[in-house]
Amino acid sequence: MILVTGATGQLGRRIVDQLVARRGGTAGLAVSVRDPARAADLAERGISVRPGDFDQPAGLAAAFAGAEKIVLVSTDGPREARIAQHRNAIAAARQAGVGHIVYTSFIDVAADSPAEFAAVHRTTEADLAASGLKFTVLRNPLYADLLPMTVGAALATGVFQLPAGTGRASFVSRAELAEAAAAAVLAPALAKTVYELTGQATHDYSEVAAAIAKVTGKPVRYAAVSAADYTDALAGGGLPAWLAGALSTMYAAVAAGKFDRVSNDFAALVGHPPRPLACLVQELFGRN
Ligand SMILES: NC(=O)c1ccc[n+]([C@@H]2O[C@H](COP(=O)([O-])OP(=O)(O)OC[C@H]3O[C@@H](n4cnc5c(N)ncnc54)[C@H](OP(=O)(O)O)[C@@H]3O)[C@@H](O)[C@H]2O)c1
């Protein structure tokens, strides 16, 4: 049996859909979710829905019982809480006798990265290595899906600001990353332990702005700001302090070159490369 955690989340849901499509049905599929009522449609389709909250380790091994493979979708929240949640999930998988964990990590796990997210994923990857379980790490790049939220205001004002300097990053859609995760779980054998699911090219945010301007016909420009100014702007806009800080340090890591990585690992799993930025921007901004 294959079990997907976080299946009421945006990536987890897409991974489930991909698994159903690739296997031609829901037999042998299970999910663990915090609120089973939100997964009622999955249960109706014949998927085993188990309650599982990584903050409540007592019930977690039961949630994972019988799973040969688990897709562990990383959680969201302040640094120490996430590390503890992932640790609880790994311990429960061990207790339940899970054979293989596929973990959705992040492209930046550098020890010298300024990013809070890097520290979370680096720690969880180390916990997996120390668990004694078989595991595969899928290092996701930036979700392309988040570009409208990140730069959308620029369609009205003409400019978006980030503390990313002239740093470069690649962007892949959640749907495609879900495809890669499903392919990894279903592969009879995997050649590597760590897959970097980058796009085929990296771009700085001026190039992102130019791609959006081309598709929308609106003048859009990127302006670099300091991490401190960005944190203040996000916090002023009502974002929780931890998230404002975490996003700021993430863009600082982009500025420091930590996201400037390109690999063919996506194609190695899926059989073809992910879509280029121009395609993604057309899909995301084409109707603006
Ligand atoms: N690569 C990127 O650009 C990027 C961007 C944002 C996030 N991420 C990471 O990728 C993950 C998946 O992304 P997404 O877009 O699918 O995010 P999402 O829609 O917020 O999904 C996060 C999932 O984590 C689950 N979760 C949170 N706390 C949990 C806990 N204590 N126990 C068990 N499950 C818990 C949530 O459960 P509920 O459904 O019950 O809320 C949800 O299903 C995020 O959680 C984050 O770690 C990556």
Task: Summarize, please.
By secondary structure, the chain is α/β, with parallel strands linked by helices. It has 13 helices and 13 strands.
Task: Report on this structure.
This protein is α/β, with parallel strands linked by helices and 288 residues long. The chain has a domain at 2-140 and 172-198 and 261-274: Rossmann fold (3-Layer(aba) Sandwich), CATH 3.40.50.720. It has 13 helices and 13 strands. The protein has helices at residues 10-23, 40-44, 60-64, 79-96, 116-131, 147-151, 154-157, 174-186, 205-216, 227-236, 241-255, 265-270, 277-285, and strands at residues 2-5, 29-33, 48-51, 69-73, 100-106, 134-140, 142-143, 159-162, 168-169, 171-172, 194-196, 203-204, 221-224. The strands form four sheets. It has a seven-stranded parallel β-sheet, sandwiched between helices. The chain has a two-stranded parallel sheet with strand order 7-10. Strand 4, helix 4 (79-96) and strand 5 (100-106) form a beta-alpha-beta unit. Helix 1 crosses helix 8 (174-186), helix 4 packs parallel to helix 5 and helix 10 (227-236) packs antiparallel against helix 11. It is globular, with a radius of gyration of 19 Å. The chain starts with a strand and ends with a helix. The mean pLDDT is 97. The structure holds NADP nicotinamide-adenine-dinucleotide phosphate. Residues 5-6, 8-12, 33-35, 53-55, 73-76, 85, 104, 106, 140, 142-143, 146 line the site of NADP nicotinamide-adenine-dinucleotide phosphate (NAP).
